[in-house]
Design brief:
single chain, 798 residues, alpha+beta, 6-stranded antiparallel β-sheet, 3-stranded antiparallel β-sheet, 31 helices, 11 strands, disordered C terminus
């Protein structure tokens, strides 16, 4: 039964045939007149007409011949008996044929071309092209065996029969991943490059002309409508050998076909093959697609070999020619490709860059009046910004890179100091400089992520950035860039005040500043995607500080509001990796806050445990999907530790030890690769501290002692680096107190009391300089005093 689409196509072809019998300037009018009562027929006929040349010998292909009556196919074509139709396409129908006679059973795909009554020029052309195409022998091109014309003059091609599936059917049924898709694309490119070297242009590249054999090999078909390089096929032969969406713009304009036309079609195919895939270095892949499918032929790859070369470089993690720019991009790809076991190699490169930046900045300041100096100043400004931000982030992913990152940080500070003294600096430069100081603060010693452990310097950098941005915000309250930089810096300073300075009041104040700024940005016409997430982060930071001030109800409300914002953002973009990580972290923070509130006011820990379970499960899902970067891995480890704390309070110490041992097993190889990463080192001390407590309560005192002593030794190392840190003194006092408890369990009262007295000395020193540690004092201070009171008789005996 003929479908409606087939009926429309048949009528459109008949009408187009009629229109071409009219003079050239009357043909469109003929179509409009004949279809004034049939809009669907008009649309279909005009679509064919608009892509056709005014040429009496132009066949209708590229989708125009969808209606071919089965009864028109002969029973025998050449030496093959027709068994069944296996496809229809632009040129006609394709049949499965079986060789009639011979010593072997041979199947072939036979393509029968329909010419709608105008065949002489085209048939002559096909005869010459068959001879050329028969010489193409490539593993990814379906071989042309023979050809000829039927009794009624219809040309046919006898081709290799590919026992497989069309490209998109194969991808769907095999759930092909990105690597498989790129392999297939590379094979198609290889086939086209081979054809171009043999002076053949395909002219109708599309997924419909790619078959995948049972062994997974790509097979390119439909070379029967190609033409040889150097011939004006569009003038002498078929024009409509094109598929909508895959045809190069110049062909649509009626210009001659070239090899660059095939490259455009390859670019469209690559875009479709990789759309939606979780591609590494997605920007590089997008640049390759954009270059291949550029509207102007001169902006495309000049050859398929050049496209193949960029694909190979992309897959190897190397820089690709499609990205315009710049040596910093090439440096970044170089670093990504070589995951140094240690950072020695990167130190040399960083040292060269660092020395060049500072020397050139100082030179430019002395010679800035000249135009060339101004241009170089801008270049170096861009270079140093890249070095401080992009290059640092790339190096930070390399195990053992702490020394290299320190060099970058130190050089970056000299650069910023020089830049901040620039006279008549623009607002943009001032914002950039302030953000550079903020960035340095995070890198040097803030607790938001990986850092170099230089906490005092970190505070100085953050305060400098905050002061500069506060002034800029006051001068230009409507400058959204200044306001966003102020919000980001306020948030970073809130974390620093809470974790490093143990100043909950200051942390809440700065987090509130960040929240207010982010809310203003989110409500403005220049709102950015991250502004609402910034609100959530600022609310969370307030909650984390509030619970340490015995204000758990307020803390829970703020973190609950933050989680609702993230859920709302995820509903709009459920696959965003940044939001998925933020949601996992929100659950961890929520569970930790609930637990601390319950510690203060009493109640059940089950709600806290449920949130922590959720957060850890979310981080595990990211890890299983391969989407957990270094920061996400750190957050996952921290989540395991925080859940262990809750399990410890619930007296589920064996379960707690499972989490603690997993966290320790993850941390130890990371620290072994980069022993100078003090951020990781601090995390492990937290894990060791809790392991000591849990081992103690299950009676495994040898393991408890070992963990506690290793923890105390590590705390001493940190305190030696920062002897004035109240937070480190507090942590040292708590760790020594745990070691005293374990010695007491071992009935070593003298040893226990010595530890208690030492612990008190550190805690008293911390209380003299720290603020806002009411929660810590209520939990630890009383217990310590009670233990010391029991030590008096021992002291007398001593």
């Amino acid at each position: 039964m003929t479908s409606r689409a087939e009926t429309i196509d048949a009528a459109a072809l008949a009408l187009l045939d009629e229109a071409f019998d009219a003079p050239a300037d009357e043909r469109r009018a003929v179509i409009l007149d004949r279809t004034k009562h049939d809009p669907e027929l008009r649309e279909r006929t005009l679509a064919l007409f608009d892509t056709a040349l005014d040429h009496d010998d132009a066949p209708i292909t590229g989708g125009g011949l969808r209606i071919l009556d089965e009864t028109l196919a002969p029973d025998v074509i050449g030496n093959y008996r027709i068994e069944r139709e296996i496809g229809r396409g632009g040129m006609g129908s394709v049949y499965l044929g079986r060789r009639i006679a011979g010593d072997f059973d041979h199947a072939a795909a036979i393509k029968l071309v329909r010419l709608t009554g105008r065949s002489k020029v085209f048939s002559d052309r096909l005869r010459s092209e068959r001879r050329l195409l028969a010489q193409l022998k490539h593993p990814n091109i379906a071989q042309l065996h023979d050809g000829g014309e039927t009794e009624d003059g219809a040309p046919y091609f006898i081709m290799e029969y590919v026992d497989g599936a069309p490209l998109y059917d194969y991808l769907r049924t095999h759930e092909a991943d990105l690597a498989e898709r790129l392999r297939i694309f590379t094979e198609v490119c290889s086939a086209i490059a081979y054809a171009h070297r043999n002076l053949v242009i395909h002219r109708d590249l599309s997924p419909a002309n790619v078959l995948i054999s049972r062994d997974g090999a790509a097979k390119l078909i439909d070379f029967g409508i190609s033409h040889t390089i150097g011939e004006d096929a569009d003038a002498n032969g078929p024009r409509l050998t094109m598929t909508k969406g895959y045809t190069a713009p110049e062909r649509m304009r009626g210009e001659p076909t070239t090899t660059l036309s095939d490259i455009y079609s390859l670019g469209v195919m690559l875009n479709e093959l990789t759309a939606g895939a979780k591609a590494p270095r997605a920007g590089d892949l997008a640049a390759i697609v954009a270059k291949a499918r550029a509207d102007e032929p001169g902006e495309r790859y000049l050859s398929v070999e050049a496209l193949l070369d960029d694909m190979g470089r992309y897959q190897a993690g190397r820089s690709v020619s499609a990205v315009k720019g710049q040596w910093p991009y090439a440096v970044r790809r170089f670093i990504q490709r070589r995951k140094f076991a240690v950072a020695a190699a990167s130190l040399a490169a960083v040292g060269i860059v660092a020395t060049s930046v500072v020397t050139t900045v100082l030179y430019l300041r002395a010679d800035r009046a000249e135009k060339q100096a101004v241009e170089q100043f801008e270049a170096v400004r861009s270079l140093a910004k890249y070095m401080l931000f992009d290059l640092h982030d790339e190096i930070a992913r390399i195990p053992g890179s702490t020394r290299a990152r320190e060099m970058l940080a130190d050089t970056g500070r000299r650069y910023l100091d020089a830049l901040s003294r620039t006279e008549d600096a623009s607002s943009a430069l001032k914002i950039e400089t302030a953000l550079g100081y903020k960035r340095l603060g995070d890198v040097l010693g803030n607790a938001a992520g990986g850092n170099l452990g230089r906490r005092t310097e970190a505070g100085e950098m953050l305060e400098t950035a905050y002061a500069q941005l506060s002034a800029l915000k006051a001068q230009s309250p409507d400058n959204s860039d200044a306001l966003r930089a102020f919000a980001d810096t306020s948030y970073a300073l809130a974390i620093y005040n809470f974790v490093i300075r143990d100043d909950s009041d200051a942390a809440i104040e700065k987090a509130a500043d960040a929240e207010k700024a982010y809310r203003k940005l989110a409500a403005s016409p220049r709102a950015a995607a991250g502004d609402r997430l910034g609100i959530a982060n600022a609310l969370t930071e307030q909650g984390l500080a509030l619970v340490w001030m015995n204000k758990g109800e307020e803390a829970i409300e703020r973190i609950k509001a933050a989680q609702a914002i993230i859920d709302d953002l995820l509903a709009a973009d459920p696959q965003d990796e940044g939001l998925l990580k933020a949601r996992a972290q929100s659950a961890i923070d929520f569970g930790d806050t609930i637990s601390r509130h319950v510690d203060q006011r009493g109640g059940e820990q089950a709600p806290a445990l449920a949130q922590l379970d959720d957060g850890i499960a979310r981080f595990r899902a990211l890890r299983d999907a391969g989407n957990a970067d270094f920061d996400a891995t750190r957050s996952y480890i921290a989540g395991l530790w925080k859940r262990a704390l809750v399990l410890y309070v619930m007296e589920r110490d064996e379960d707690a030890l499972v989490d603690l041992n997993e966290a320790d097993d993850l941390l130890k190889p990371l620290i072994a690769r980069d022993p100078e990463d003090l951020g990781l080192f601090r995390m492990r001390l937290s894990v060791l501290s809790q392991k000591a407590l849990s081992y103690r309560y299950v009676g495994r005192l040898d393991e408890a002692t070992a963990a506690a002593e290793e923890n105390v030794a590590g705390r001493r190392r940190l305190l030696d680096l920062e002897p004035d840190s109240a937070a480190l003194k507090r942590e040292m006092g708590s760790s020594i107190m745990t070691l005293g408890d374990i010695r007491k369990d071992r009935e070593d009262n003298a040893g226990a009391c010595a530890r208690y007295r030492e612990a008190k000395s550190y805690l008293v020193a911390a209380s003299d300089t720290a603020a806002g540690s009411e929660y810590f004092g209520s939990l630890v201070g009383g217990e310590l005093e009670k233990n010391l009171a029991s030590c008096d008789p021992v002291a007398i005996a001593e």
